[in-house]
Design a protein that fits this description.
The chain is α+β, with helices and mostly antiparallel strands and about 120 residues long. It is built from two helices and four strands, in the order ββββαα. Helix 1 crosses helix 2.
Length: about 120
């Protein structure tokens, strides 16, 4: 990006899918909440000195709420290893570790494997 000050339009593009346990009705209003990940960023020059930045959001966990009814939770389709990697990544960010994430991840995974071998978990 050339100039952050000229990037004055931002778009969040929703992508992906959520596997739900029941059918939804066409024409109904639903409140959707989601945890997910920004998977890409695209910059478009608007030919007027400004830029359009588009961020692509892929859902991980989705909940659907209809007024006065119980929430519908979509199935979390991530593998357990993906969930563990996400947790380790969050720890790495929160602890502000000075080593690269991949090195931190490898050390954590070796600790987990050793704990399993020793019967600690």
């Amino acid at each position: 990006m050339k100039d952050l000050k000229s990037a004055n339009e931002y778009v969040l593009k929703l992508a992906g899918k959520a596997y739900i346990p029941q059918e939804l009705e066409i024409g109904r209003n639903y409140k959707i909440t989601s945890d997910g990940t920004i998977t890409s960023k695209n910059e478009t020059d608007l030919d007027n000195g400004s830029h359009l930045l588009t961020f692509k959001f892929n859902p991980v966990l989705v909940e659907i709420q209809e007024a006065g009814k119980l929430a519908i939770r979509a199935k979390d389709v991530r593998r357990q290893s993906q969930k563990l990697r996400g947790i380790i990544y969050r720890q790495w960010q929160e602890e502000s570790i000075s080593i690269e994430f991949e090195t931190y991840y490898e050390k954590k995974m070796l600790n987990i494997i050793q704990a399993v071998i020793e019967g600690l978990i």
